[in-house]
Amino acid sequence: MLFDLFPPALVGLVLESLKQTVTMVAAAALLSTAIGLPLGILLVVTAPGQFMERPIFNRIAGTVVNLVRSTPFIILMVAIIPFTRLVAGTTVGTLAAIVPLTVAITPLYARLAEAAMREVDQNLIEAAESMGASPLQIIWKVLLPEALPGILAGQTVTLVSLVGYSAMAGTVGGGGLGDLGIRFGYQRFMPEVMIAVVVILVVIVQSIQMIGDWTARMVNHRVARRRAAA
User: What does the longest C-alpha to C-alpha distance in the chain come to?
Assistant: First the structure.
């Protein structure tokens, strides 16, 4: 019965689509972290009253982040098609989908990282400044270690959001599980394919959430022990 519902050819398509989704999510997550974390740091340290205060830069960067975040992903994908073609050389397929995924998720991660770092006790930063620490030392030895649990929690939210965005990318030729669900589950009236896609996406999201929660909890315990020892 199961073999009738999912013949080998269809199973192959599911596995290939899963591979494409994992590729899109992993690549966009790495790129958004590489760009979003420094951006989040800048949003914190250049804010009024901080040790690298740059109000004009902070206002401009915050405005750009908010503009991108307020744009629905499906519209953003279409709006930046020329940029996607410039970067990836094409506007369809897994490689092309990584570009709008990165553009869409980077501001979200930057804001989540910023929120985590704003929770760091200001007294710790002032103490580091009084001991002659440079801005870079404050960032690496105080700000990031203390905010790490929140940053990891933000990374979990980012990955979960990326999974949902990657499914939407399939509606405009991005490939992956979303594309499979639309082409076979919806357009060809194969509900078993749609169910399989939904189940796989749920498993992926739940796995990311559990691993992310566990990692943040472990790091939080280590940070608490370090504070107690100090």
Answer: 72
Number of CB atoms found within 10 A of residue 188's CB: 9
> Between the CA of residue 199 and those of 6, 27, 36, 211, what are the distances in Å?
14, 23, 30, 18
**Residue 134 — left, alpha, or beta (φ > 0 → left; ψ -120 to 50 → alpha)?**
beta
CA dist 204 and 162 (Å) reads: 11
CA dihedral 166, 168, 173, 178 (to 10 degrees): 70
CA dist 201 and 66 (Å) reads: 28
Give the C-alpha distances (Å, rounded to integers) separating 221 from 11, 154, 209. 42, 17, 18
Number of domains in the chain: 1
What mean pLDDT is predicted for residues 203-223?
86
The CATH number of the domain holding residue 59 is 1.10.3720.10
Model confidence over 77-93: pLDDT tens digits?
Answer: 989 989 999 998 888 88
pLDDT digits (tens, 9 = 90+) for 130-183: 888 898 999 999 999 999 999 999 999 999 999 999 988 877 777 888 888 888
Strand intervals (E) in the chain:
none
Percent of the chain surpassing pLDDT 70: 91
Q: Which of 210, 209, 220, 211 is nearest to 145 (CA)?
A: 220
